[in-house]
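# step 3/5: fold
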Amino acid sequence: MFESVELGQSIPKDEFKEQEAEIRAQLLELQRELREAKIATLIIVAGVEAAGKGDVVNRLNKWFDNRGIQTHAFWDETDEEKEHPEAWRFWKRMPARGSIGIMFGGWYWEPLSERAHGTITDQDLDETSRAISDHERMLSLDGMLIIKLWFHLSRRSHTKRIKKRYEIQKHIKGLPGEGTGVKAYDEYLAAAERCIRLTDSGECPWHLVESDDKWFRDYSVAQVLIPMMWQRLEEHRTREQHGQSQEPIISVDNQPLTILDRVDLTASLTRDKYTESLHRYKKELHELSWEMYDAKRSTIIVFEGWDAAGKGGAIRRMTSAIDARLFRSISVATPTDEERAQHYLWRFWRHVPRAGYMTIYDRSWYGRVLVERVEGYAPTNEWMRAYQEINTFEEQLVENGIVIIKFWLHISPEEQLRRFKEREEISWKQYKITEEDWRNREKWDEYKQAVKAMVEHTSTGHAPWSLIPANDKLFARIEVLKTVCQRLKQSLKKK
């Protein structure tokens, strides 16, 4: 693989300088057009140590308008990052639509370094590489332009530069680097070749850059960036002219009977039994939440359900049992402009809790396959691929030790109508009812089929759905508390 960029190519400095002005003009114009088209661009800069990656990034900040660029390195992991899933630190730094992000190494830096030093196996690297490929494909399908640059040095040039660097920097302690010194060169390249082959895709191809000559190296980078940016803009213009191509909206879930029809809506509790159970489970949950904190186990609790199903009441009974310092409750509404500028999962990644803490979502990422599907806010191809994206997201959280508990609170159409009318009649409840609630009710059957598909596709062993009968609010609240306690106890036993 790498022999293709060990050809000894170079260009004179004067020739490079003659062309640099035109290169810069083209890149500035492309940056402007990408910004107007709201296309996010991510440039991943990777390669062997001493290949000049820092010099390249500095030049890119000179060529582009650096007010629209954010550069990120990942060699120094903070304490906060250590208490989150590995992907959290990358999601925090994703470029917004219309901006450019540059990542040194990105999600490749750590697995390649670990494989070069023998702390992970080839199988581990392969699994990570496939997960990276899926992740990049998801971002690409969402519209992000991902440009991956691998800077290569021949063994001779690498040895020469490493020795020179170490001589200059031998008195500087703690200097960050890939750890690909002379001894690790072969191991690093072997790991890189394996990873590159598994992550070199049509959507996100790798570009190998010969780096022995710095002028040829930087010129080669421009020859990658310009056509890729131009091509993405052409694709965008074509879609704008001819409209978004998407599959026709065909209902594939039109069976009259769904899993919701199996939920026993007659389940109820007496007030005395409710009071007794509420006291018991709140006391148990209070103790379990502190045990989770001591064990540094995080929890994410998702509440979905029909309008007026009692999500808010269930959340209040639960949070009243937990020390306020341990949880954060997120009410998910229409995305802000900042959130619209990112992949839809970004706004949920940013609220993933630190080790030992809890995040409660009142509505969640499932909006993509519920309201966005039914109301037509997301094209068919987007919400259909969201099932796998969500499963991957949740799997990443669980693999990091986070407990995910998902509730769908189910009521009958008749009970919903009764509660809607009650909200209209009682002054202190009127704020709870809106015109949107009534509009959503008219699409009950469509939402019912969307819920069926959601449960079928995303109720997994590591993150199952709990369907809660909620015609009786007292019964629903206790079921929620009991389920949370059971799941936390199971998690602590596994630990």
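# step 4/5: annotate
Confidence is low (pLDDT under 50) at residues 173-179, 245-253.
# step 5/5: archive (pending)
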